[in-house]
Amino acid sequence: MLSVENLTKVYRTGDKALTDVSFTVPRGQVVGLIGPSGAGKSTLIRCVNRLVEPSAGSVRLNDLDITRLRSGDLRRARRRIGMIFQEYALVERLTVMENVLSGRLGYVPFWRSFTRRFPPADIAKAFRLLDRVGLSAHADKRADALSGGQRQRVGIARALEQDPDLLLVDEPTASLDPKTSRQIMRLIVEICRESGLPAIINIHDVVLAQQFADRIIGLQAGRVVFDGPPAGLTEEVLTRIYGEEDWTAMRQAAAEDEAAEAEQRDEAKKMMRAL
Amino acid sequence: MSMTDIPAAEAPVWHHRSFAGRLALYAGWLGLVALFVWCWNLMTERTMWVFVHDAPKAAADLVSRAWPPRWSYMDRLWGPLWDTINIATLGTLLGIVIAVPLAILAATNTTPSRLFLRPLALFCIVASRSINSLIWALLLVSILGPGILAGILAIGFRSVGFIGKLLYEAIEETDAQQIEAITATGATKAQILSYGIVPQVLPTFYGISVFRWDINIRESAILGLVGAGGIGAQLNASLNVLAWPQVTLIMLVILATVVVSEWVSARVRHAII
User: Fold this and answer.
1) Pick the CATH number of A2-243 from 3.60.15.10, 3.40.50.970, 3.40.50.300, 3.40.1160.10
2) Where is the ABC transporter domain (chain A) (predicted)?
3) B229 near A CB under 8 A
4) Which of B178, B183, B188 sits opposite A91 (nearest CB)?
5) Do the domain assignments include residue B35?
6) Which pTM does this prediction carry?
């Protein structure tokens, strides 16, 4: 179980990225974190494993206060938190297998990882996971030889190779086409269901979030403005998250586009008549 | 009615540069021409034209004395040539051994201390780069005495700056996302280096090293001029006794070596990258 209490992040530039964010994620729950760009979604999930250092508040994973850990203990905590990234963040010049095995780096001593002699159990697990994500035939290919969807599958396998207690997923579908996006989201959610793994998924696609998450948290300018079931995402709630002006501006922009198009059509007609 | 029918007066005017910009450009060109004229005057003022008029005859005379190359002298060149190649190769290896840790200390994203170690590493790199191999060799010959060792160290010390600078720039240009992902797995600093950074800079590193080796072959060929071993010593000796046919042969040998090293380095870089 993950519990975040009064989490606040102020960047050195003075920008307040997060203000008093609190929520708990029970075992097996998939949380969709939505909000406009710059709302603090990325900062929030990076504060959980302290890739970004929070300014105040606490993050507890199974009663371990992550915010208080020193570097060695922090590394041991990080290895139980799997992370999946927007642009896959695979080490491009390593093979698929090496990328998946890098999920074990927190568990093996340096010389074993350096010589690529991982324990047999880790290798067996990696093959099982590659099979699970449908890439067993590609184990020895280099990561940069794969397509976007395949790379994200490797990213998922790497995160699971860590034996995580929690998954942090940062815009997993932002670089993928709609069909692949759906497949990747389904895969992530299925895997979470299979092993009762809690997950926080940053996602800007509201429809995808509604379809796959058990619960939605809406962030707006660093504050939680919505926390509830996907069915609760009404027009009014979306307005609260993304802002009134955004919606009207979007409609206005669409209307302007339409008007401009109509004008162009008239102009063309006039020209035709003149000829 | 098409676009070309718009009357000229209504056609929008677009200039690549503003009026002031064009003026500055013309002024710049004028300045450049003036500088050239001034330099030309300065140069011709100090030239003794008698010698210049004589140049074709002098050159023809030199060539006639230097040609044909004295092929029999080759027997005495194989040893120094082998030394030259060894100086370049061992010097490059020495440079790599010193430059790699320096580059890691100097790159902003891998340095353990930005305030103390990074400036120190940068200073070492700049110091090495600012001194020519020939000067390094002069210094080292006076410290260690003449010989191959001084040559190897001179080449090595000069290579540190070249390899260190290019390598630390490559480290700084690595993709931060890949490093972040490795960090998120709970990896140690050493593991982040070996999984996140090394794979990203390895091709650049090989390219830099082979390129430097190629340069070092050329540089080590002249180190003998100051007594640091290699084929340059023979060149110096031959020049001193005006043995022009031997000089020609040495030049040809150096040329051949450089061509071969260039070919090897091109092949190696092609194979890696």
Assistant:
1) 3.40.50.300
2) 2-246
3) no
4) B178
5) no
6) 0.78
Instruction: Tell whether B162 is covered by a domain.
Output: yes
99-158 in chain B: CB under 8 A from chain A: none
Q: Which of A90, A91, A122 is best to mutate for the B interface (most B CBs within 10 A)?
A: A91
Q: Of the candidates A107, A113, A271, which has its C-beta nearest B194's C-beta?
A: A113
Would you say B169 and B108 are in contact if contact means Cβ atoms under 8 Å apart? no
Write out chain B residues lying below 8 Å of A151, CB-based: none
Radius of gyration of chain B (CA): 27
Q: Do B180 and A49 touch (CB under 8 A)?
A: no
**DSSP 3-state percent helix, strand, coil across chain B (nearest 5):** 80, 0, 20
β-strand pairing of A64-65 with A166-170: unpaired
Residue ranges of the domains in chain A?
2-243, 244-275
Write down the pLDDT at residue A274: 67
Number of domains in chain B: 1
Chain A, nearest residue to B184 by Cα: A78
Residue B211 falls inside a structural domain = yes
Q: Residue B107 is part of a domain; what is its CATH number?
A: 1.10.3720.10
CB B219 within 8 A of CB B88: yes
Rounded-to-integer distance, Cα B178 and Cα B57, Å: 66
| Three-state secondary structure call for residue A228 | strand
Q: In this complex, which of A51, A103, A110 lies closest to B188 when CB atoms are compared? A: A110
Whether residue B3 lies within 8 A of chain A, CB to CB, comes out as no
| pLDDT tens, residue by residue, A247-272 | 555 556 556 666 666 677 677 777 76
